[in-house]
């Protein structure tokens, strides 16, 4: 009789300490959140999660654009990127209906995320794939003929394991990316499935923006995957993901009305939709361009309260500024003091 598959993972002191820290923080967060605030923060964090996961794959849509798609408003952008965002929003809506160890649900998740983007959405890949770093192949996935067996073994392990969900979800994420069972979309499915495993353990994970933190540490994400592969041990990747989960929980509950300077407060109150620098200065009756940039714009962007329409080109003549979801939350709570 064949022994059940057991993914190799060395449980280090760092991993176990992170698990304890995360569990403690979850307890504190569950007490602090009231129902109304939780609903608002869930929306903010879901948008951050989707934007982060898509950005890792090269999608350039901003939080504001994804918010507009969620609200059913027209958005100017690349059709493929808009479709990716719509698919991701749909997948997150379906998340509560899926079971982590059920193969049919995993295939359905891929179908939802990749509908209209690949011809084989919802099916295991039929050919070979490799993970690229520029023009270099850094990982050649197992042959397509092995994918059904490997995924069946992995899902059976997930169903039977008594490992802590924080550890099990990270091991699954690594093993899934190693197998690379789909022709495309493996990264976004792997991250979504780790979220599903975690939120089955604790509901706060349903919209904790782990993906946005992974995006912020994207090079480390790929390094951790490669290190685990080189060592034939998922521990480096597990440790990396636990760090990101802890960081995500620390940033998932921003203050309802974060402290801002009087200058930033004026700026937030003065923005109407998308506005250029000159229009903003005129609305605030400010003449000094340098003072406006240093005392108004830069602090507001640094606090995540406004964002640029062309983030990759801060000096673009087409640049516009708009409130983020967090900025709109500040406006809603603003007392005018």
What are the main properties of this structure?
337 residues; mainly alpha; Fic-like fold; Arc Repressor Mutant, subunit A; 2 domains; two-stranded antiparallel sheet; two-stranded antiparallel ribbon
What composes the largest sheet?
2 strands, antiparallel
How is the CATH topology of the largest domain named?
Fic-like fold
Task: Choose one word for the global shape.
Answer: globular
Give the helix level as a range of percent.
Answer: 55-70%
Order of helices and strands: HHHHHEEHHHHHHHHHEEH
In the CATH hierarchy, the architecture of the largest domain is Orthogonal Bundle
Write a structural description.
With 337 residues, this protein is mainly alpha-helical. The chain has 2 domains: 13-251, Fido-like domain (Fic-like fold, Orthogonal Bundle); 262-333, Orthogonal Bundle (Arc Repressor Mutant, subunit A). It contains 15 helices and 4 strands. The strands form 2 sheets. It has a two-stranded antiparallel sheet. The chain has a two-stranded antiparallel sheet with strand order 3-4. It is globular. The N and C termini lie far apart (72 Å). The model has no long low-confidence stretch (mean pLDDT 87).
